[in-house]
Specification:
- Helix 3 (about 70-90) packs antiparallel against helix 4, helix 4 runs antiparallel to helix 5 (about 115-135) and helix 4 runs parallel beside helix 6 (about 140-160).
- The longest helix has about 35 residues, at about 5-40.
- The radius of gyration is 20 Å and the shape is globular.
- By secondary structure, the protein is mainly alpha-helical.
- Mean pLDDT is about 75; it is low at about 165-185, about 200-220 and about 235-245.
- The chain has helices at about 5-40, 50-65, 70-90, 95-115, 115-135, 140-160, 185-195.
Length: about 250
């Protein structure tokens, strides 16, 4: 940065190293707490708590993988997300907030850390498609959490896929949008979710959008996310044996 003296640069480097050191310390403490003390109490339960703890281990390893050039963080993050996803798919419904949050974070891992955008998009798209089909089964207690996470998943897909046609499925026009019960823009959407306003019966269109007051968001770029409709992009052990990439 121009205008900085050597002493100022040295101070900046020292402060950055201090932050990185504290980040590593706290994340590794949380990972140890989860792995040694919490997970053993729920391992084999195949429930929301086990999924959440595994997801959390994946999250903290992802944070470290984003900052440090250490392959073990990436490997451990993917392993934990993988285990959590296998349990979630078998035991939690498609609209469960914990399952949706896991899909959101796992897809971010693929995109930001593993540098595998197609896997990220397939995972996010599958999670969104599966949840939107079951939206009418949500109860009032989880509706707000689930739909807000769905919007975040959708926002990521919008950002990651740009403005080109990506094939059949949820998106079949040149924009991506999402609306609920009279929402005309994203702020209005969030306000209405906060107020607990539900979509009307039958408000879900064929391509997976709630059509009432649908609004466009961003354009998509050309990323191929086509897939066999009968197959799930949720990773299998064989699917995740990819070469480790670090920045």
């Amino acid at each position: 940065m121009e205008g900085l003296t050597d002493e100022m640069k040295e101070n900046d480097d020292s402060y950055l190293n201090l932050i990185k050191s504290e980040l590593k310390q706290y994340c590794e403490q949380y990972i140890e707490l989860l792995s040694k003390y919490l997970l053993p109490t729920v391992t084999g339960n195949a429930d929301e708590t086990e999924v959440f703890y595994l997801k959390s281990v994946g999250d903290y390893n992802r944070y470290l993988a984003e900052v440090f050039d250490d392959k073990s963080y990436k490997i451990n993050a993917e392993k934990s997300y993988q285990q959590a996803m296998e349990i979630a798919v078998k035991n939690l419904n498609e609209t469960h907030p914990t399952r949706l949050g896991l899909a959101l974070n796992f897809s971010v891992f693929y995109y930001e850390v593993a540098k595998e955008p197609e896997k990220a998009c397939k995972l996010a798209k599958y999670a969104f498609d599966a949840s939107i089909e079951k939206l009418d089964t949500l109860n009032d207690s989880s509706y707000k959490d689930s739909t807000l996470i769905m919007q975040l998943v959708r926002d990521n897909l919008t950002l990651w896929t740009g403005g080109e046609e990506v094939g059949t499925g949820v998106v079949d026009d040149d924009t991506i949008g999402f609306a609920v019960g009279g929402a005309r823009d994203v702020n209005n959407f969030r306000e209405r979710i906060e107020k607990g306003i539900m979509p009307k019966p039958g408000a879900i269109t064929y391509n997976g959008l709630l059509y009432e007051y649908y609004f466009d968001t961003k354009k998509r770029k050309n990323v191929n996310i086509n897939q066999n409709k009968n197959s799930s992009p949720y990773p299998t052990p064989k699917d995740t044996e990819t070469e480790t990439k670090t920045d």
